[in-house]
Design a protein that fits this description.
- The protein has 3 helices and 5 strands; from the N terminus they run αβααββββ.
- The chain has about 120 residues and is α+β, with helices and mostly antiparallel strands.
- It has one domain.
- Strands 1, 2, 3, 4 and 5 form a 5-stranded antiparallel β-sheet that branches.
- The model has no long low-confidence stretch (mean pLDDT about 80).
C-alpha cells in the first residue's frame, strides 16, 4: 500500500468514528456563590448583605419562622461514541458532573441564623 492509500484509509476511519461522537454540556444555576464569600456573622449579617456579596438566591423558602436562601449550581458533561454497522451496535457513554447547593437561613428579623453547603458528584 502506498502512503496516500494509507492516509486516505485513516482519514475515512477518523471520519466514521467522529461521526458517531457526541459531547454534551449542561449547566444550571449561577456559580457565583462558589467563587465569592459572604459575611457569616450570626445575628448580624442580613439577607441584603448576602445578596450583595453572592447575588440573589435561586429559591427562597419560608418554613416556620425562618427564611431560607437556596443557591444551586449543577454542571454535567456527557461523552458518547456510537458506532452502528447494520444491526450491530456499539456504544460508549461516560457522564460526569458536580452539583453544589448552599442554604443560608435567616430569622424573621432578617438576621443570619446559620448556613450549610452540600456537594456531590452526579451520574
Amino acid at each position: 500500500m502506498t502512503r496516500a492509500r494509507v492516509a486516505k484509509a485513516m482519514l475515512a476511519l477518523v471520519l466514521v468514528v467522529a461521526a458517531g461522537c457526541r459531547i454534551e454540556t449542561e449547566k444550571y444555576g449561577d456559580d457565583t456563590f462558589l467563587k465569592k464569600d459572604f459575611p457569616k456573622v450570626r445575628g448580624i449579617t442580613t439577607a441584603e448583605d448576602v445578596a450583595a456579596h453572592i447575588g440573589p438566591p435561586d429559591e427562597v423558602r419560608t418554613p416556620g419562622d425562618e427564611v431560607w436562601f437556596i443557591y444551586r449550581y449543577r454542571e454535567r458533561e456527557a461523552y458518547s461514541l456510537i458506532l452502528t454497522y447494520y444491526l450491530d451496535f456499539f456504544k460508549i457513554l461516560r457522564r460526569e458532573g458536580i452539583e453544589k447547593t448552599l442554604f443560608v437561613i435567616f430569622d424573621r428579623n432578617d438576621r443570619l441564623l446559620y448556613w450549610t453547603a452540600s456537594s456531590s458528584p452526579t451520574d
